[in-house]
Automatic annotation (TrEMBL):
Function: One of the primary rRNA binding proteins, this protein initially binds near the 5'-end of the 23S rRNA. It is important during the early stages of 50S assembly. It makes multiple contacts with different domains of the 23S rRNA in the assembled 50S subunit and ribosome. Forms part of the polypeptide exit tunnel.
Domain of life: Bacteria
Keyword Isomerase included in the entry's annotation: no
GO CC terms in record: ribonucleoprotein complex; ribosome
Region of interest (Disordered), residue spans: 43-85
The name this protein goes by in its record: Large ribosomal subunit protein uL4
Signal peptide stretch: none
Organism whose genome encodes this protein: [Clostridium] aminophilum
UniProt key word Ubl conjugation: no
One GO term of the biological process aspect: translation
Similarity comment: family membership: Belongs to the universal ribosomal protein uL4 family.
Stored NCBIfam families: rplD_bact
Length: 206
């Protein structure tokens, strides 16, 4: 099993934590990780784009001039794509971009992402992240003590004030155990998690 150092809010090492190999020591499946990221980004798309084709724009019911004898090229409608006010040739229409992965694939991708962060020494465990008051400056100081920038901070349910304190810090996102996802784990340089959050992750995904 992998061992990681545990730090306090001052950035001092206060112990070590043994991670469960069933979650943090799996074989990294890059293909599943890629599928999970593509699915997540695709599922964010609204798919509501729409433009009118020549059959949907108004007007153009009559032929603008006779077929022959005018010197102009033949035209059947003033709403053909080459005319101003005409329809779009291959107009986008509303569609569903949803990509589905089964539960096993999602879990395997998440475990692979977490394992990759541990292997790259980008997984930081903090013994606790509890604040007495909501204070952005204090949270920023904690990240500075941990020498962390652009981080995904995984919190347990007792860190509500910490989550609010982190809202206004640039390049930082907080997440609960049940909301972590592959895209965020890979997007941020470092994953910072409390000991309680790590235990909860192992309990849910092991």
């Amino acid at each position: 099993m992998a061992n990681v150092s545990v730090y306090n809010m001052e950035g001092a090492e206060v112990g070590t934590l043994e991670l469960n190999d069933a979650v943090f020591g799996v074989e990294v499946n890059e293909h599943l990780v890629h599928m999970a990221v593509v699915a997540q980004l695709a599922n964010k798309r609204q798919g509501t784009q729409k433009a009118k084709t020549r059959s949907e724009v108004s007007g153009g019911g009559r032929k603008p001039w006779r077929q022959k004898g005018t010197g102009h090229a033949r035209q059947g409608s003033t709403r053909a794509p080459q005319w101003k006010g005409g329809g779009v040739v291959f107009a986008p229409t509303p569609r569903d971009y949803t990509i589905t992965l089964n539960k096993k694939e999602k879990r395997a991708a998440l475990k692979s992402a977490l394992t990759s962060r541990v292997q790259e020494n980008k997984f930081v465990v903090v013994d606790s992240l509890k604040f007495d008051e909501i204070k952005t400056k204090k949270f920023a100081a904690v990240l500075k003590n941990l020498k962390v920038q652009k981080a995904l901070v995984v919190l347990d349910d007792e860190c509500e004030k910490t989550a609010v304190s982190a809202r206004n810090v640039a390049d930082v996102k907080t997440a609960r155990v049940n909301t972590i996802n592959v895209y965020d784990i890979l997007k941020y340089n470092t994953v910072v998690a409390t000991k309680a959050a790590v235990s909860a992750i192992e309990e849910v995904y092991a």
